[in-house]
Design goal:
Number of domains: 3
Organism: Ophiophagus hannah
Structural class: alpha/beta
Keywords: Cell membrane, Glycoprotein, Ion channel, Ion transport, Ligand-gated ion channel, Membrane, Postsynaptic cell membrane, Receptor, Synapse, Transmembrane, Transmembrane helix, Transport
CATH superfamily of the largest domain: Periplasmic binding protein-like II
Distance between the termini: 18 Å
Largest sheet: 5 strands, mixed
CATH class of the largest domain: Alpha Beta
GO molecular function: ligand-gated monoatomic ion channel activity; signaling receptor activity
Low-confidence stretches: 160-170
Membrane topology: Multi-pass membrane protein
Main location: membrane
Number of strands: 13
Length: about 350
């Protein structure tokens, strides 16, 4: 293929195809996963290429008159020799163009916004209900009053120069609070009844403190699990967060075919299709992937799209406001599209399969 100049059509889609240099008066330079594959083929096979972006920035859909638009349309109309981007191999596309074997697996993912972290100054009170805190406070006062009455009925003998009885009685209420702080009191209680009651009170305080510590640890652990949607199944089961994809895209068709297939065993796709197809698809779907990403970041929305693209967006977001979930089973792949009957298909496939 040395000396051959191929005309390449593409669609901008991070991280597959991106503009790396755009100098006025010079051809644009591109970079990305797909560009790396194309450059490797060019180096090994010896051909050169001229690359341009599809005029309508679409991958391609069949029109009513039987023609195609977008990247696929450029190949059908023979304006380009090959097409490369985040282009998935689908049966409809294979009917009008040729594809090489897949050079990367494809799976559907979901882009969501991370839950906002808020600081609550009263978070330490969360392990117990307000009614329980009120009961504990009332119990402290009650025990203090009982200690006071027991020592008033049978006052301890105080040595000469020790605290007065007034100081002793004033300290009763504080002594009932000491066990919750894991500390002791300053007043020696010599009566048997007072000692027995305070022993029971210390045991009760130990149980309460242990329960509080365990509940606090569980509460802090649960608050770290902020994202309730961890899979496509979780997304399909909920209706609080609307979700969609690019209208009439390969992902849209993928969900539609599986969602409307009565023999599909997984009911997840039928639920996904019900949400995506609201108002004939106009309610929750977008025209471009960048619009869907923008809706996720600044609104209550989940965007269903190529998992590789969404992972790149989440990792490179300066605010770290995204997270992704997806289907780990790859049933399709990304490939290079060529004109129907192109002699270069097998040559390309053999090269990057070696």
């Amino acid at each position: 293929m040395r000396g051959v100049v191929l005309r390449v059509v593409t669609v901008l889609e991070e991280p597959f195809v991106m503009v790396s240099e755009n100098v006025l008066g010079k051809p644009k330079k591109y970079q990305g996963f797909s560009i790396d594959v194309l450059e490797s083929l060019s180096t090994y096979l010896g051909f050169t290429y001229e690359i341009y972006v599809a005029p309508d920035q679409k991958y391609g859909l069949p029109l009513e008159n039987g023609t195609w638009n977008g990247l696929i349309g450029e190949l059908v109309l023979k304006r380009a020799d090959i097409g490369i981007s985040a282009l998935t191999i689908t049966p409809d596309r294979e009917n009008v163009v040729d594809f090489t074997t897949r050079y990367m697996d494809y799976s559907v993912g979901v882009l969501l916004q991370k839950a906002e972290k808020t600081m609550d100054m009263f978070a330490c009170l969360a392990p117990f209900d307000l009614s329980l805190w009120a009961c504990i406070a009332g119990t402290v006062l009650l025990v203090g009053l009982l200690v006071y009455l027991l020592n008033w009925l049978n006052p301890p003998r105080l040595q000469m120069g020790s605290m007065t009885s007034t100081t002793l009685y004033n300290s009763m209420i504080f002594f009932s609070f000491y066990p919750s702080c894991s500390t002791g009191g300053e007043v020696p209680y010599t009566t048997l009844a007072t000692r027995m009651m305070m022993g029971a009170w210390w045991l009760f305080a130990l149980i309460v403190i242990s329960s509080y510590t365990a509940n606090l640890a569980a509460f802090l652990t649960i608050t770290r699990i902020e994202n309730s949607i961890q899979s496509l199944q979780d997304l399909s089961r909920q209706t609080d967060i609307p979700y969609g994809t690019v209208l009439d895209s390969a992902v849209y068709e993928h969900v539609r075919v599986k969602g409307m297939n009565p023999f599909e065993k997984n009911s997840m796709y039928s639920k996904l299709w019900q949400m995506i197809n609201r108002s004939n698809g106009s309610e929750n779907n977008v025209q471009e992937s960048q619009i869907g990403i923008h809706k996720v970041k600044y609104g209550n929305y989940a965007f269903v799209w190529d998992a590789a693209v969404l992972e790149y967006v989440a990792l490179n977001d300066p605010d770290c406001s995204f997270y992704t979930v997806g289907n780990t089973i790859a049933d399709r792949g990304y490939g290079i599209a060529l004109q129907h009957g192109s002699p270069y298909r097998d040559v390309f496939s053999q090269r990057y399969c070696c």
